[in-house]
Amino acid sequence: MAKLEEIVRKQKAGATFVISAQMLQLSPREFDALAQVWDDDGGPGFNVAGTPFRVVVDGEFLISRVTVVRTTAEV
Question: What is d(CA 40, CA 32) in angstroms, rounded to the nearest whole number?
């Protein structure tokens, strides 16, 4: 996911920022699957901070946006 890595690399360690389905040009369902992994294990160069924002799609709650904190890990 080159776009995700690009977004993360622009941030300084300790920075808090948002990653959304729209930013990565993913459907809510695709983004939800990724965000659940990030929430459990962290993402490439960041950790999820707080509660992910969810939307209802076809009666199902899906993660559409997460607030993350940049770590010092390589991306």
Answer: 12
Residues in the chain: 75
CA-to-CA distance for 62 and 42, rounded, in angstroms?
A: 18
5-32 pLDDT per residue, tens: 999 999 999 999 999 999 999 999 999 9
Is residue 34 within 8 Å of 26, Cβ to Cβ?
yes
CA nearest 21: which of 62, 58, 51? Answer: 62
Is this model's pTM higher than 0.85 or not?
A: yes
Can you tell me the distance from the alpha carbon of 17 to that of 48, in angstroms, rounded to the nearest whole number? 10
